[in-house]
Amino acid sequence: MSQRSFTSTFRKNRLGLVGFGGVVFFLLLGIFAPLITSYPKGYGTDIMASPSFVHLFGTDGLGLDILSEIIWGARTSIYVSFIAVALAFAIGVPAGLVSGYIRGFPGAIIDTLIDVFLTLPVLPLIIVIAAVVGSSITNVAIVIGLFSWPSLARVTRNATLRVTEMQFIEAARCLGIKQRVILFKHILIVIIGPILVNLTLIMATSVLSEAGLSFLGLGDPSTWSWGTIIKKAWDAGAIIDTPNPYWWWFAPSLSIVFYVVCFNLLGNAINDALNPKGRE
Known about the structure:
This protein is mainly α. It has one domain: MetI-like fold. Helices cover about 70% and strands about 0% of the residues. It is built from 13 helices and no strands. Helix 4 (about 65-100) runs parallel beside helix 13 (about 245-275), helix 6 (about 120-135) runs antiparallel to helix 7 and helix 11 (about 190-215) runs parallel beside helix 12 (about 225-235). The chain is elongated and about 75 Å long. It comes from candidate division WOR-3 bacterium. This is ABC transporter permease. Its main location: membrane. It is a multi-pass membrane protein. Belongs to the binding-protein-dependent transport system permease family.
């Protein structure tokens, strides 16, 4: 599919445009967080203030502005997502390419390794490893990335198996082109579509994993994240208090939902644009 055809099909997908707009919004929010608002720290004067023109999303138990916390939480979410995606890509794509292209012992070993990782109870293992290696945000992102590559490797392998039998790959072999060139130049370009779709899913699930770890107390307490905000609200009893300061936990929860939905919509739109016949 040509770039023009892809762009034209993508623009017709309204939900995809919503997802793309949301992704761009979060990226800009995370990148320019220091220019938008100051880092929330210390104590504020308005304790548990409800949403108003002064504090659009209210304040927490320390009097800190929750909107500022959410903006800086977006920065953390983007950071975690990109670290996880980078690791998943660096491990999963080469593993999938080799597994799908090379027959015999090397491919079988990698394929078995992928299957083993796919059967592991991911969340409990992430919790255990995060507890062992420490709760810095970089460690959490690396742990999430290390458990995100098997699904990407499986997608890459399946796509590679389909492309390997095509005539242009046979021609490249006959011309004596090196295997690494065939894998990373000829095959990877053809199968980049499903890889991109899977990467958007990893971007979404990595934030869910980070939020879950932070809520369990395994996140970085020195860094604001959406999971950390909800954790602090829970520890303070804000979620079950009467009257309930809903703004403390509702806004970060909605941010997580919106972030995940946007990346899923974007991934579905990319998939539909790359495979227009699959929608019929």
